[in-house]
Amino acid sequence: MRSRRRLRLVLPLGVVAALATMTGVAHVVQQPDPTDASFLSPTSDAGDGARRLADDLTGEGVRVTVRRHSAEAIADAAAGGPVTVFVTTPALVHPYYLDRLATLPPEVRVVMVTPGKAELESAGLDVAVGGPRWTAAAPRPGCATDFATAAGPAAVQRWRYGVANHPAVRCYGDGLVEVRTPRAPMTLVGAADPFRNDRVDEHGNRLLARGLLARTPAVIWLDLHEREPAPDDDTGQPTESGQQEPGGTGDDTGGGRPGEDSPQDDHGGDPQAGDQQGNDSAQGGNAVTDSPLARAFPPAVWATLALLALAALALAAASARRLGAPVAEPLPVRVRAAETVRGLGGLYRRAGARSTSLATLQGAARVRLAEHYGLPADIPPDEIAERVAAAVGQPVIDVRHVLSGGVEDSDEELARAATTVQNLVRHVTGQQHWHHGTDEENVT
Fold it and tell me: Smallest Cα–Cα separation from 147: which of 116, 105, 104, 185?
């Protein structure tokens, strides 16, 4: 009784905890992954892409140049002229390039989407990072900048940035902060929602995104979706050739429209960059997430497996069943044999286990017959059938069927077979006459 009360107390809490865990896992799976090729890509029409924003900027006369490597974007920005460098995935940018972004000239604006503490430190900013929220909030601007007042409430407050050590413009409850430095001003945006195709029309997201990026006549869009390798040099330090884009002149060749890219390979023409990239991935990750098995499947697969495992645990808890093989335990109280038989019979009947019920009776009958003839209890059923057939004068096959045969799928057949087994045992042990195939009992 006490264990049942404990189960009633623990089970609802376990179900609630399991539901909360499954909800959290599902939420993580639905969050956009910066390593997906569609994430804030100016050429992607997916929900987490940003083609609609890129088309808006182009329609306003802003020149959008897409770059796949930080070195190319920095070289273009340093070439001169007012320009905005849009960094969609700061966590994938190598720390060296983050430091170089912070040293660009004042006419360059750098807009970073959801940078973390490590990325901001690499950029030379002492900024406290708070969050994340479950979803991005859309507070009022709370500042007098043109892009914020025109947009009104916008969904940028998922991460918050405390900039007490830097002169800055703080908007949306610190969800959007623009740090003013002697070099390039850096704008920190706490959520990707204003730039996404599926969120751009919510609140004032569209006006805010356009206002942030259209403050200069050109935008260099860093479309990076894998961890960036370090600049390759025998000493591990960047070289002049690594700093300048090969053939880069700062013009718009190959990148004047969204979707066009510089005609370079993924490693800047260096055949050893692939190996270097693998080494840097290992340095930036860990032995589990960077293992070949972990990279062979997307994160959603592992999250789904974890969700199924939690569902199995919840089902086991809801069914009040153990995980593993059954364990024999002594009964807490003494139970009468008749009550045990009646209880087991009820369970067998509810489960429709007629063959199991008959097999239990047949096994007990064989043990009793073996004791009657002075035979070992584990004697094969065929030998007992031969001994009994000789005693009752019936064919061996009929006796074998009575002691080992199955039963049809009906309660009436089970009752007849059980009565026949009982009559046979009583006849052999001298308690009654046995007539095979009838239900009559002629007690001597």
Answer: 185
